[in-house]
Design goal:
alpha+beta, six-stranded antiparallel beta sheet, single chain
Amino acid sequence: MCRWFAYVSENEECLLEDVLIAPAHSLAKQVHEHYLPKLLSHDPDNITTQHEITARNRLFNVDGFGFAWYTSAQAEFNHRDGERPSLYKNAQPPLHDLNFLSVCANTASKAVFAHIRAATATPVVAVNNHPFVFGRHTIMHNGVISDFISVCRNMVDLMDDDTYGNIKGSTDSEHFAALYITYLTGGKGKDSWEKQYTVREMRNAMKKTQGTVVALQKEKLGDKAEPNSLNVCATDGQQLIAFRCRNHAREQPPSLYYSTTAGVTLNRKYPDHPDGKNNPVAHKNPEDHGSHVIVASEPSTYDLEQWTLIEKNHCVMVEKDGKPQVEKLEYPADWNATMN
């Protein structure tokens, strides 16, 4: 599947080059290199097979990339409150794109979403790359909605006109994002995309979107419905939610980790280095770094202690204070697909 990286902080900008390119295991290099510590089965009677680990963590993510970073430009020029996302997408691997390298070397932000894609059943074109933006809200996904073509039209019927009209591509992920925005805003259209909602409202909208997809699959396919992998992340530039989910009794979703300390290692202003090397340009004390949360498909620093694996069917919620809350997502047993 795909890989993604999210950073959010109340007061500490990160340089995009530091978090997306410079580390030996940065997102830009996860096109073909992978690091999956702690990824074990939660079934105590079965040791995780290599197949289960790699089946939802595909080795090659070469079908393009996208990234969003929040800036204050619109707030300053259009009298809006809060920062808004800038968005860049390309259908080639990131390290082949000189514009990507230049933007990252010269851009810092307190909120960054980045994604590299492994296409499934939709074309390799820029509009199909994540993240997806609706006003101040940004969403990205790693995984798959099974038999998407069977439920796509039903999902669209539940969206308000503005949200449906904002869909530019053909992926299951973008349609999932649009349905999430419809539920988050109550289907009130594009003006409601500029509002902030509580993390609980974001969480509830995301869970409702998952439930709708499962219900439609069962309605259309019955017992033939297959499980979905839904590692989904959403932000408004200050708050964040991230889900790691798969509706199967035993199988694991793709990998997903979070950290509240790796941002220091990933920032060249501070001592340490993501690869454990010497950092000659550091000039700040680690304790001066602002609070932050990173959620990522794979760790991007050498220090494993900085990263926590998010358990299956759990979510991470980050409010404006920057403190993460991890919560188990309770689902009805009949959400689980019956196919092995």
